[in-house]
Every structure is written in C-alpha cells, then in structure tokens.
Here is the input.
Amino acid sequence: MSDRRTERRHHNPSHGNTFRSFIAIEIGEQARHELSRLSAELKSECRGSFVPSEMYHMTLAFLGDINLQEAEAIYRVLEDVASSYEPFELKLCRLGFFAQQESATVFCSTEKDNTLISLAHDVYRSAWDVGIPFDDKPFRAHITLGRRVDLRTTRLDSIPVNRIPFTVSSLVLFKSTLRPSGPIYEAVSRIPFRGCQEAK
Here is the structure.
C-alpha cells in the first residue's frame, strides 16, 4: 500500500489545464469574525504573513495539481460522500502552531468531533479510489491564520478563543493560485450534504 501511495503522490497528470487544488470546508460568518479578531490581536504582537479573513477554511485533503478530467472524477465521488452526511456543527477551540516559534504557521483548532474525523477519512478514501495524487498525511483539524509568524515573544495560550460554533453543510473543491503576495483561493464547486439545497 505504501508503495502505491508514493506512486500516486508523484503522478503527473497527462492532460492539460491543470490547477493546484484542495478539498475543504468553509467557515461560518460569526466564526470568521472571531478568527479575524484573533488574527488582529496576533498582528499587534507578532510579525508574519496573515491570511485574509475571506480565505479562512479548513482543509480536509490537499490534492496538488489536477486536470479537468480528474476534477470531474473527484466531484462525482465527493457527491457520494456528501450524500451520506447531514449538516453538523463545529466549535472554535484554541490557538496552536506548526514548525518553529521564529517562523510558525499559526492556526485555530476546533473541538474534537467524530463526524469531522469520519468526513476527512471518507474524503481521503475517495481521492485514493479515483487515483488522485494527494497529500495523505494524518488529518488535523485546523484553520490557518498566519504563516512565517514570529512567536518568540508571544504565548498563544494567553490569547482566549471564544468558542463560536459554525455549521458544516457542504464540501468544497478549491483552486489555489500561488502569487508573490500570497495564495488566492477560488471555489470550483460546492457539494452539499444530504437534505441541503444544492450549492452554487
């Protein structure tokens, strides 16, 4: 299994019109406001590159470069995944970071939720089933707030997070365009959960 996964991760699509992509869930408005407040507090204390509030999301699986044919294939299997879920609620929890304090990726996590873990697992399995090359590192629920943030004089546990809830009601396939000023994310398609009106 590990050899096949490695082969898939390094697969280069043979068709044109490829784009960098990932599967994610979107953040509700009230939670987004809280994340923006936290980001502003961090900006006042730390140097770094902070994510604009309109781009907050939680990645379930990073797919890398896919072509239009692969995008259609992943959309079809994600429809099957989404049809087995009903909307559920997540709550913001606490701040954390990856990497080193002098150049950290700062994020806000959500409270542990078994439905979210199951959803991420099903998304991984779907990408695997259709042969999409993807980053299969273990899922960790987080919403990125900033990158290359210097935390050497800041304690994240001293910044309280209001546990704002938000509803998850769809999966989203995003296109990511890398630019010198930072990545730009564009929703390619939204796949609603069972019982939800079809997203546009």
About this structure: The domain at 2-192 is CATH 3.90.1140.10 (Cyclic Phosphodiesterase; Chain: A,). Confidence is low (pLDDT under 50) at residues 1-15. Residues 29-45 form the longest helix (17 residues).
